[in-house]
Structures are given as C-alpha cells and as structure tokens.
C-alpha cells in the first residue's frame, strides 16, 4: 500500500471514532475507488479488490481496468472492513480494520509486490507464473511464526511434497545434520544457494545405511527460519546455470532485507509422551543505512530434547543383556538387581542445542553501484547414542569396576558452520556487473562419553576426543548481464565466470580413542566403543580447484513466448572438464493457460569428501563388534581391490508442464519430469576376506590396515527417475472470511538401469548370493524405493477477523527397503515394506492486534506412527532371496548358525527406522510473535 492509501486509512480511522457504534452501518452508503500499480509504477490490470464488512459479512468486489483503476460505488459506511487485493504473479495484499465515511469517497492506492523468482532465470523481473520451469515459493514470513516445526529442514518437509528430510537415529553424525532429498534423489544432487550465491556442503558423509547413504549433505538447519523472507525451490536441473550439483534442482534461501521494524519469536513444544521438549527464542531487527541502505540482523537460540520410542523389553534373539539363554538371562538380571528398564536404548531424536546469527546488508556506493554482504554462523552441540555394549555379545569389552553391567556410549558433536559473502553490483551503462566472493566453513568434532577403550582395561578413561573433519569453500564469481527491451519482445543476456577452491581435512582424535593397548581382556576391542576415533592413518587433507565460464540468454520472442538457453564449461583440477547446456521455453496459449518445457544436461563433481574420506567404523553385530574400513580411492586397499578414481555423475533432464490461472484466486500447475543419471557415486557393499583366494591382494591389504572388511566410493549405478508434480491453490471469500485451499503432490519412481562392477567383483554381483554383492541390497533399495513414492499435502484454512484455523494433511507414500546386513550374511537380509501414512496438523492463530500473534496447535494430531520394523514392516515384506516364507528362512538360519534369526537387525532396541516421517508421535506446541516498528 502506498503513502496515499496509508494516510487515507489513518484519516478514516480517526473519523470512525465519532461514529455511534463500530460496525453499525449508517443510513447513507460510502464509496471506494483508487488504483493498483506495481513497484515500478506500472498499472496492474484485472486485479481483484474485495471489501468485506466484518460485522455482517457483506462483500463488494471490483476489478481493476487497463489503467489499474478500480471503483466500488456502493459500500456500507462505518466498518471495520477487510480489504483484499489479488492478482496472479503478485503477492496477495490484505488490509484490516478499515473504516469508510459516508460524506466523502475514500481513495486508496495499492502497490503490489511481484512474486519475482531469483532461481531458474537471471532476469530480475521474472514472476513465479512466468517461469519456464517449476518453482515453489515458500513464504517464510507467514510460515515461521505458525508452523509446528522450527528446524528449516522439518518446516520444508511438511509443506513441500518434492522435498524430503527425516531425522536419522543411531547413524552417528547424521543424527545431528538432517539429510535432504529433492525429487527422490541424493542430498548432494541438489544445489543450495543463499541470496543466489553458492552455499557450502558439510564435512559429513552419510554412513551406516542412513538416508542418502554415501552422499554429502547441506546443513539447512544452520539457518534461522526467522531470518528468511522466503525459500525458492527450483524443481528442474540447473547445472548449466549454477554449476555442479544442481541435478535435481536448486534451493535458494532469500534473507530478509527490511530496513526497519523486526520481530521477537518465542516457541515451545513437547510430545504427548512428555519428551522431546523444544524451546526457541529468535529476534530479528531491520536497520536503515543511509537513505537507501539496510542492515537486517537475526539472533536465535533453540534447544531440542531427545526422544525414545518403543518398549524397554529386550528380545532374547536380538539384544539380550547377559545371555542368549532365557533362563540364564532372567537369573543374571535378578542377581544384578536390574531390569530391562535399566538398559533401555535411546532411539529417537538426538539432543541438540543451536545458537545462530545472521546478517544481510546493502549500501549504495555512488549513483549506480551497490555494496552488499550477508552471512551466518551456527554453533551446535548435539548428543546421540550408540547401541549398548552388553555382556551377552561383547563380554570382552566389559570392564569390571567401570561399567560392569554394560554401557550405552554417547556420541557427542560440536558443529560450527559459517558463511560470509561480499560483493559489488555496478551499473555500467545498460549493463550490470556483479562481483562477489563467498567463504564457507563447516566443521564437526566428536567427543565420546559414557564409554571406554576396553583394550586399556581398568585404566581406560570414559571420555574421548575422537577427532572430526572440516570442509571449506571459496567461490569468486563475476556476472555481466543486460536486458535488451527492444530485442524481440525483450531479451536478457548474461555471461560470466567462477573460480572455486575446496579444502577437506580429517582431524585425528586423541590416541586413546583409536589405539589398541592390549591391556584388557583377550580380543578386547580397541578404541572408544560406540564410535572409534579417527587415527593418524585416517587423517588426511586435500584441495581442489575449478574454473568455469557460462553464458545465459533468455528471450521473449513475443509477449507470450519465452525461450531460454544456457551453456557452461567447467574444468576441475582432479578429474578434468565438463560441458553442459540447457534450453527452456514457455508459451502463453491464452490468458489463463500456459505450457512450459525444458531439457538440460548436467553433472555433479565427486565431492572432495568422497574422494578423500577414510575411517575404521565400529559395527555392532550379533557376534560382537567388527571393524569396517571405508577406504578412499587413493589407498593401498582400493588399489588392491582394483577400484578406480572417481568420475563425475552426468545427467539428462527433461520436463514439461501446464499452468492454469482461470481466476485471480485460483491457480494450478502440473509438471512431468524425467532425470537420467549415469555413473552415480555410491558406497559399495562390505567386503571381507575372500577365502577362495581370488582377491588375495585385497586380503593382504585388509590385514595391513587392521580391518575386518572394506567399503569404497565408486561410480557404480545408472538410474532413471520419473515423476509428476501437482500444485493447486484457491483463495475464495466465504462468509465473513477467506477460505484458503492448497493441494500439492509429488509422485516419483526411480529405477536402476544398470550397474558398473569392476572385473574383480563381477562374480559377487552374479553369484546369486545377494548378501555378497559389490553393491548391496540395502543401498540399491534406498536408491530405488527409499524415498516415499508419493507425497501429498492438503491445506484447508479459514481466516476471519482476528482468527484463523488451518488443517494440514500430509500423506506419505510407501517406502520399501532391505534391512541392514552388518554380519554380513551371504543370504542377504529381509525386505521391509513401510505402508503409506497420513499425518494431520491443526494450527490455530489469534492476532489481537497488528503487532502480536499467538499460535497454538498440534503436529500429528492423531498420533500416527510409521510401521514398526518387526511387527509391521518386516511382516509386510519378504524373507531373504531364495526363501518362500519366514518360517523356512528361520529354520535354515537356526541350522546354519546355531541360533535363532535376529532379523530385522536391532528390532527390539531400534523399533523404527527413519523413513517417511518422524516417529515421535503427537506433538503440542505454542508460538508467540511480536512485530515492532509497524
């Protein structure tokens, strides 16, 4: 709303104080007229203006003419009224508590803000509905104060169907950094930007069979949601525009740029089980720098409590405390004076504490130049746990006098994530030159507590510095762009270059966290139990550089037909070059109907973390701990195995869509896509000693490395993903208020087209022993069916006066995965089917005045849980390959191994896996937000 309209409303409010009763209609009606323009002063034709008389619900509607003017000649005098201004391609505008006088017409002028998108285009005036590719725009100003979730990954998980992020459990570092997925692909196949600039990944690689196994992640939770204006999710390949990683799409975080006002946000919540208590305090403030500059600051602190689900009761075939014999187990428990409650496994969300700070500033420098800078810092302290170390399976690692009955190691982390950007935008005649530099650093250190190094015996400490890793990235970028308004119907040209330098290092832990001292019981396991520290042989440091050049042209051939093309060349210091391109087009068939399509090639460079990572990982099995080494491709073990150097993943994306806007309050889009990826980088299966002697060189290398088995990163899989995105919104006025309806859905399916297996391992992939494969069953199933095959979000909301209510339903589709195979069994593991689930949120909002808002509600109102792996997912699935029934397999297992089957793994202590949704159940929350400077 412009200055004129603000003054008129204030005058009308003043005049209203002389009225006999607020809301009482006078004998003579009033009139309203005015105009609607964009921020550039252009007339906005066909915009709809709705005036709702709140006491009676009587409404009047007017449509703006070609010059943007509108008139409403017959409205009730008095008030209060709520005014709505709606136009596709612009943000809706709502003005409340308006009064009209009967003795003179009221004139209101509105200025609408375009729903401009910054991803998928380098034009600065491209609106959401004009985009040639699918883009989701999530209004964080509206969502942050009301959503049940506080972490950014979880906020997006419950509102964006194509985006998935489930918190992991018992997955080491992944318990503290939520993996993300766009369109069912890996975390590192999506590019994250902040204000359009590349954001760095973490130093963490997802391991232990967690979501995104073998991939590198982005830590979106390093950002305070309250610092964001909106989040744009480009659902299309864009590597030709932005470089490596943008295979599935791009997530762009837009920071607030207000130069005045701000808010204070308080949040608290707890599960219906009484755990998982959360609290948050966030403050945002906008400051004016000079006449046209701004500085926007956000400071935030939050805490999330740990959760545990399932019974404390242990199953004798899975995780007994003292003995696999039921009678002996009962006797020893009684003798110890303990029950199973004393050995309950923590198995839900990790305990996490965050401190975040963000800034965003811009200052004019001269008449046509501008300096900008933004950045963030996040300090996180996390505490997760490993499975209990117990006498039944790990007697050699029990030390009398320290933890005589067993212990549950705590895996604690300290995460520091920082990024800073500085740049200049210069006006060079009709051209704009953008020069920027971005520095990003992510560090995670592990300190392990409530554990011991059993090879030290009674001399062992119970706390260890286990080391960690650090990743840093420097990006320098230069982009020159210009809009030629008279070339065709408008043509934007951009070109430029980029230089990027990455560095990754693994930091060794203290000696006691990894060393075998040989002073404990015979065969006692060396290193900190639960998480063995990084030893000096694992410590590594490496650098990589790449340079790139790109050109991007987007032309409006006519006012109804847009064509775009982009080309990019990149050269990396470690693997060579890549050349990729993209073409896109959008055609407005009629005013309410448009079609769009795009084709692009893309690539993802192997992450420096994947090239260099190495560690001995402690894997708990039913026969005790085994040490599995993850060896990088430069190691002696990899060379002995015949594993080659990593090469980039390469992709081909095809998409086509339809956009319908039959009315200002109604919009609909549907987009189909296909993404083919060659040479996908995955973590191989687990290989132990080869008794046949075929891989004698590998056997010798494992012995030298003190490892029981090995894994490698490898370009082993070619996949194809097909899917469909649907988005529909409808905001009609109903009764005295406004009905808000939104339906969004994603349907996708990934298949593995072929595998690429080194010659030395060909027999493993074809020997009909699925638990002995070069690429194991679980890894393949996580790629194909490890993400929900569909996800549907239905929002039904109603706003009336100071109140609003929203019911949000999220339908999570089926997930199917093979279980872990830690032992590893040649027969492979069981296949589990997690049935579709629906979670329902209820959100109630009360705004007593313009500045204050109170929101309360419940997430997962009906307390829906994902399938329990033993009572549901396991029984919905099937036994290992080659067995018709579970009874047949269990009899075979008993005969071969001399004990009952313990599959699925850890079914009593870890009853749920992180699949479609959280397994915390019902969650109650309360939020309060106060806006100042209005």
Automatic annotation (TrEMBL):
The keyword Transmembrane applies. Pfam families: CarboxypepD_reg, Plug, TonB_dep_Rec_b-barrel. It is found in: Cell outer membrane. Keywords: Cell outer membrane, Membrane, Receptor, Signal, TonB box, Transmembrane, Transmembrane beta strand, Transport. GO terms for cellular component: cell outer membrane. It is a multi-pass membrane protein. Belongs to the TonB-dependent receptor family. This is TonB-dependent receptor. It comes from Hymenobacter busanensis.
């Amino acid at each position: 709303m412009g200055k004129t309209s603000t003054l008129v409303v204030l005058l009308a409010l003043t005049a209203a104080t002389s009225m006999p009763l607020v809301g009482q209609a006078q004998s003579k009606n009033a009139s309203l007229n005015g105009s609607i323009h964009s921020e550039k002063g252009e007339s906005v034709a066909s915009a709809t203006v709705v005036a709702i008389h709140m006491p009676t619900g009587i409404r009047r509607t007017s449509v703006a003419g070609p010059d943007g003017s509108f008139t409403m000649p017959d409205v009730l005098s008095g008030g209060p009224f709520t005014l709505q201004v709606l136009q596709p391609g612009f943000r809706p505008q709502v003005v409340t508590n308006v009064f009209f006088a009967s003795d003179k017409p009221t004139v209101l002028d509105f200025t609408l803000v375009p729903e401009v998108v910054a991803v998928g285009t380098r034009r600065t005036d491209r609106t959401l509905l004009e985009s040639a590719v699918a883009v989701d725009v999530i209004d964080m100003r509206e969502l942050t104060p009301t959503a049940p979730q506080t972490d950014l990954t979880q906020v997006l998980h419950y509102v964006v169907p194509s985006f998935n992020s489930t918190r992991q459990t018992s997955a080491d570092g992944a318990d503290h950094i939520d993996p993300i997925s766009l369109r069912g692909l890996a975390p590192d196949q999506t590019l994250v930007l902040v204000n359009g600039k590349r954001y760095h990944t973490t130093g963490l690689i997802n391991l232990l069979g967690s979501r995104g196994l073998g991939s590198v992640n982005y830590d979106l939770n390093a950002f305070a949601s309250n610092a964001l204006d909106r989040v744009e999710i480009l659902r299309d390949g864009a590597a030709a525009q932005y470089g490596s990683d943008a295979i599935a799409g791009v997530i762009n975080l837009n920071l607030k740029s207000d130069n005045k006002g701000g808010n204070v946000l308080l949040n608290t919540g707890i599960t219906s089980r009484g755990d998982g208590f959360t609290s948050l305090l966030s403050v945002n403030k906008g400051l004016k720098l000079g006449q046209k500059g701004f500085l926007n600051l956000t400071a935030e602190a939050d805490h999330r409590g740990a959760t545990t689900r399932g019974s404390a009761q242990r199953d004798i075939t899975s995780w007994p405390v003292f003995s696999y014999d039921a009678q002996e187990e009962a006797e020893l428990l009684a003798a110890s004076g303990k029950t199973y409650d004393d050995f309950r496994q923590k198995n839900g969300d990790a305990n996490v504490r965050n401190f975040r700070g963000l800034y965003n500033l811009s200052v004019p420098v001269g008449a046509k130049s501008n300096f900008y800078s933004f950045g963030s810092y996040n300090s996180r302290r996390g505490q997760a746990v490993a499975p209990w170390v117990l006498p039944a399976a790990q007697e050699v690692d029990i030390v009398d006098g320290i933890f005589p009955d067993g212990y549950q190691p705590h895996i604690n982390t300290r995460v520091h994530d920082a990024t800073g950007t500085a740049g200049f935008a210069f006006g060079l005649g009709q051209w704009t030159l953008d020069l920027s530099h971005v520095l990003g650093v992510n560090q995670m250190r592990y300190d392990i507590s409530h554990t011991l190094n059993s090879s030290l015996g009674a001399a062992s400490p119970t706390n260890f510095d286990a080391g960690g890793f650090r990743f840093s990235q420097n990006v320098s970028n230069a982009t020159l762009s210009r809009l030629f308004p008279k070339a065709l119907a408008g043509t934007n040209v951009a070109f430029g270059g980029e230089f990027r330098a990455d560095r990754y290092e693994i930091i060794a832990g203290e000696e006691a966290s990894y060393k075998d001292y040989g002073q404990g019981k015979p065969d006692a396991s060396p290193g900190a139990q639960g998480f063995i520290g990084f030893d000096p042989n694992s410590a590594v440091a490496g650098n990589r550089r790449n340079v790139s050049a790109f050109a991007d042209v987007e032309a409006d051939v006519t006012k109804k037909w847009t064509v775009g093309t982009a080309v990019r060349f990149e050269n990396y210091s470690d693997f060579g070059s890549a050349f990729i391109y993209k073409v896109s087009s959008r055609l407005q068939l009629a005013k309410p109907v448009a079609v769009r399509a795009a084709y692009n090639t893309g690539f993802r460079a192997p992450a420096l973390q994947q090239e260099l990572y190495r560690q001995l990982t402690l894997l708990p099995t039913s026969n005790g701990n085994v040490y599995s080494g993850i060896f990088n491709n430069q190691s002696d073990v990899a060379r002995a195995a015949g594993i080659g150097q990593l090469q980039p993943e390469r992709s081909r994306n095809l998409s086509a869509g339809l956009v319908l806007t039959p009315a200002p309050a109604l919009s609909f889009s549907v987009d189909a896509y296909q993404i083919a990826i060659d040479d996908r980088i995955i973590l191989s299966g687990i290989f132990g000693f080869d008794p046949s002697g075929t891989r004698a060189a590998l056997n010798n290398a494992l012995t030298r490395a003190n490892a029981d088995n090995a894994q490698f990163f490898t370009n082993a899989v070619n996949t194809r993903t097909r899917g469909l995105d649907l988005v529909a919104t409808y905001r009609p006025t109903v009764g005295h208020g406004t009905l808000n309806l939104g339906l969004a859905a994603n349907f996708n399916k990934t298949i593995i087209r072929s595998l690429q297996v080194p010659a030395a391992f060909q027999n493993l992939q074809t020997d009909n022993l699925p638990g002995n494969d070069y690429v194991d069953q679980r890894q393949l199933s996580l790629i194909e069916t490890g993400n929900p095959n569909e996800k549907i979000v239905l929002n039904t909301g109603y706003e009336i006066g100071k109140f609003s209510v929203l019911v949000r339903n999220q339908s999570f589709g089926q997930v199917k995965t093979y279980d872990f195979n830690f032992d590893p069994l040649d027969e492979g593991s069981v296949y589990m089917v997690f049935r579709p689930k629906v979670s329902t949120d209820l959100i109630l909002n009360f705004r007593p005045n313009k500045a204050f808002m109170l929101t309360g509600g419940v997430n997962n109102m009906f307390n829906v849980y994902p399938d329990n792996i033993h009572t549901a997912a396991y029984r919905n699935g099937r036994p290992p390959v080659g067995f018709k029934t579970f009874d047949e397999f269990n009899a075979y297992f008993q005969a071969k191994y001399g004990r009952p089957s313990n599959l699925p793994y850890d079914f009593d202590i870890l009853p749920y896996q992180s699949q479609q949704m959280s397994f915390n159940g019902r969650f109650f929350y309360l939020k309060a937000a106060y806006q100042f400077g209005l």
